[in-house]
Specification:
The chain has about 120 residues and is of the alpha+beta class. The chain contains four helices and four strands; from the N terminus they run βααββααβ. Helix 1 (about 15-25) packs antiparallel against helix 4. The protein is globular, with a radius of gyration of 15 Å. The model has no long low-confidence stretch (mean pLDDT about 90). This is TcmI family type II polyketide cyclase.
Length: about 120
């Protein structure tokens, strides 16, 4: 399983609308195609954080899904509410936070990640 955090800006009053858009999309085939096992959306003021747990690394799965009609539809519907955190954003990969430390309970392994997000 892979965990990813997508970071962006959100219209603070749009929580319900954004949740509705994702709920409708999560009822389609798209989560299964991408391998989504869990999704949580968070907001702190105008900061949007999207926790995504996928079967395979999310970067590749999300990039592959970009052309899927449902992905395009969701992206268009979110556009009024979600905007890039950085003006240099070019793709979903640019919105993914870099994990530099992870703790797992005893009996599970903790991981460090290199600059490309690979376990080291």
């Amino acid at each position: 399983m892979d965990r990813s955090l997508i970071v962006a800006k959100v219209v603070p009053t749009a929580e319900d609308r954004v949740a509705e858009i994702f709920a409708e999309s999560d009822a389609t085939e798209l989560p299964g195609l991408v391998g989504v096992r869990h999704r949580s959306l968070y907001r702190l003021h105008d900061l949007y954080v999207h926790l995504l747990e996928t079967e395979a690394p999310a970067q590749g799965a999300v990039e592959e899904a970009r052309g899927h009609p449902e992905f395009v539809r969701v992206s268009e519907r979110l556009r009024p509410y979600i905007s890039p955190y950085l003006p240099t954003w070019r793709s979903p990969r640019d919105a993914m936070a870099h994990c530099f430390y992870r703790y797992d309970a005893p009996g599970r392994q903790s991981h460090r990640y290199d600059a490309l997000g690979r376990q080291s």
